[in-house]
Amino acid sequence: MRVFVTGGNGFLGTAVVRHLQDAGYDTFAPRSVEYDLREKYEAGAAVKASRAGVIVHLAAAVGGIGANQAHPGRYVYENALMGLNLLEAARSAAAKVVVIGTACEYPEHAPLPLREETLWDGYPAPATAPYAIAKRLLLVQGQAYREEYGSNVIHLIPGNLYGPGDNFGPETSHVLPALIRRFSAAAKADAPGVTCWGAGLTTREFLYVDDAARAIVLAMVGYDSPEPVNIGTGVETSLFGLVDKIVALYGYRGEVTWDASKPHGTSRRVLDTTRAEAFGFRAEVSLDEGLRQTVSWYEANQ
Predict the structure, then answer these.
(1) Active-site residue, from 131, 162, 208, 223
(2) What is the rounded distance in angstroms from the CA atom of residue 172 to the CA atom of residue 185?
(3) 292 to 165, 245, 246: CA distances (angstroms)
(4) Is the pLDDT score of 205 beyond 80?
(5) Pairing between β-strand 26-28 and β-strand 255-259 as defined by DSSP bridges
(6) HSE value, Cβ hemisphere, 13 Å, CA-based, for 12
(7) Architecture of domain 2-165+206-234+270-283
(8) Is 131 noted as a catalytic residue in this protein?
(9) How far apart are CA 151 and CA 226, in angstroms?
(10) Quick check: 64 pLDDT over 90?
(11) Rounded-to-integer distance, Cα 145 and Cα 137, Å
């Protein structure tokens, strides 16, 4: 079977393509300059050219909190448009679609751990809401297409992804790569201190990129329900704890301070991953090991 991976040359996409090829699948992963999924005709042309039985939709306009606040219009428009066009083209081609959502879809004040049943119990955190609502739209579209047309669309909700090859850009990176970049520079410069955004008690769940890729391949084969599925570790980590681990890896001895005036999104986040066990997924890479691999890659490739 051939698998079309949108965003297949990006951070997560590269890992997904590698896992698919290791499992014996033929893959089609064109770059965005070849097919602009924001254009309906081009999305249809990409699906037709792929001749794929399954589409894994990873292409997205993404970034950290700063980028989300700077580009809310772009993030809601482009993510919604790409998904709407792709699912419509996949419907016509009778291809299964694996949509990758975001933990930002959950309500800002949902009870922990986050369970799929609570997804519609409130509005997402305002800092990332436009992006989150665009992803929720794709969940609704997939369920509606399943009901009306018999389309097979599944929706996966991963925790915060990280790992080798991540985006370390100063304007667009998420919290973990941003902290690695900052402490790497501080250690090399022997800087007296580092200021981190937000409050250190903020928590997140961090999922290693290869665990996420493995989950996607398992769900592609073994999951066919309209209900969304959390993909994660089920382990909640505070930013205090994350910074301590990064500081230790760099041997940094300067002062660490926190600027609570900066945005930090939802105060706490950790996923209930029970539903993913039905198709055999459990995360394997610990945060300590994943951080070692990520820091090593960054120092070799920055």
Answers:
(1) 131
(2) 17
(3) 13, 9, 9
(4) yes
(5) unpaired
(6) 28
(7) 3-Layer(aba) Sandwich (3.40)
(8) yes
(9) 10
(10) no
(11) 12
